[in-house]
Amino acid sequence: xxxxxxxxxxxxxxxxxxxxxxxxxxxxxxxxxxxxxxxxxxxxxxxxxxxxxxxxxxxxxxxxxxxxxxxxxxxxxxxxxxxxxxxxxxxxxxxxxxxxxxxxxxxxxxxxxxxxxxxxxxxxxxxxxxxxxxxxxxxxxxxxxxxxxxxxxxxxxxxxxxxxxxxxxxxxxxxxxxxxxxxxxxxxxxxxxxxxxxxxxxxxxxxxxxxxxxxxxxxxxxxxxxxxxxxxxxxxxxxxxxxxxxxxxxxxxxxxxxxxxxxxxxxxxxxxxxxxxxxxxxxxxxxxxxxxxxxxxxxxxxxxxx
Length: 306
Hints:
alpha+beta
């Protein structure tokens, strides 16, 4: 007898055979050969665990709020210029190692990309990213005293801590296949010290065709990424506002690409088809009504004769 079939969770209700996942995983890792996005596998209590970096694209329309202070302040200024430079370098190194709550379990894997949030130029609070230099002038030190060195690599204060990430810019988080959509969202927000509640956001799988599918709370984004394939030109995972985003079916997505005049002509044709169907149904039920009335009249005549 063969070994019993084992499964991997696609969601709380759906399972997929382990053999299918491993086959898809080989394709996935082959596509990312030589890159940090290859997924690693291990067995834990008889269950298959996938882990690695997951790309998430920013699709927000409204500003988000960043924390003004980190949980643990690492950056302090001193009058000593050399000490200030060393503090900045130490902070940068610690940021490179910080990969969120899940990173402690991954041990020894590739580093995440350093956290960066690109601002959209529509923000009134947009300011140019300040580049670090090896030496600090008196003016630089004064700026450092009034601006906190942010986790996303630029200086900001209360005027610039509220902004909208550039639409379509990409970031990544290190996750595994046991992390649900809610957990991945929390990890992403924690990475950039975003104050907004995770319930304000959702993840969507957005396809090249325009189709958009919401990843539910009970689903596992890393497994979904493997199932939809590694090519992000075909499908991408976007973070969007829960009240602004909406699902788009494949059928609807086919029409979104057309120009307005073409869509108007489609609407006219649909209206004509609707009218034809209405007329057809009206004639059908009129004929049935006449037949029923004729039968009733025949019965009345028969009863009168009796």
